[in-house]
Amino acid sequence: MRSGDRIGGDIKRAEQDLVAAKSAAVKPAGLTVPQYSALLALSENPGAPAATLARLCLTTPQTMTTILQNLVALGLVERTSHQWQRNVLENRLTETGQARFHEADRAAVAVEQRLADAFSTEERAQLRALLQRCSDVLSES
Amino acid sequence: MRSGDRIGGDIKRAEQDLVAAKSAAVKPAGLTVPQYSALLALSENPGAPAATLARLCLTTPQTMTTILQNLVALGLVERTSHQWQRNVLENRLTETGQARFHEADRAAVAVEQRLADAFSTEERAQLRALLQRCSDVLSES
DNA sequence: TGATGAATATCAGAACTCTGATACTCATCC
DNA sequence: GGATGAGTATCAGAGTTCTGATATTCATCA
Description:
Two copies of one chain form a homodimer.
Chain A: H1 7-26, H2 33-44, H3 50-56, H4 61-73, E1 77-81, E2 89-93, H5 95-117, H6 121-139
Antiparallel strand pairs in A: 1-2
Helix pairs in contact in A: 1-5, 2-5, 3-4
Chain B binds a DNA duplex through helix 2, helix 3 and helix 4.
């Protein structure tokens, strides 16, 4: 099988172009794509621990810890001990984090919108269904 | 826009499941996915310099240099000065590299085959066309 | 009560990835 | 010949990502 015949290459290319576009979009806000993803998950799930954010962002707890450390250093996230469970650290956006996230989100949503606008409603559903089938086949082992 | 409404998430999920499946496939051969990709490009383009391999593997020359350094340390790749152009380093698979690549390739092709088998010919063409349109839209800016 | 399992967190090490900057060689154009 | 631009290579730094291992807390069950 030649490398050009492989579906994987098309998926990788699309994903890389997506990351490149999003990276350029969130860069003016001083964020990387993973950092932005973490802030997005955090804004929709205030107080979530790192392990939960990792699941939402499709990454590992270790990676999320690293990302959060950088966000804490930037003053965008605060980590506080959970009121009841001593072992859990709650993560919350600071005010600066809120503002920075909204700034980045406007640009990131624009990218998603541009992508969505390239397809009809039917095509969009089709693409998502086909990608879903890829995931199912690949992870079923 | 809620995070669940974004096409980007589906692409990322498919790509991650793909990497996870390929990673598991090439791991018995002692390779990572990027290392396998480099060996694949090298097997189809013997003697190619790092910059060329980087383009084929959709990565940067710096990253490819790192990958090649690891492959050289494993004894799978040899780097030699180009006969005419003094500035260029030619990369070639060693015999061990050939063997290791073929071992990994069998497993990797099986993953791609499993993926391809999940779709009809029409669906496959459709998926690739839709992904291509994603890339075009995202990289046109 | 004590054991077990699930979930969290973290340390350590390695690999991959990028941007930015710099240097060298080669071909081309003036 | 000399300047310019393209292509290659590399150093430096930072960020992301993984696997593996370990510790802690909490809930559940024997």
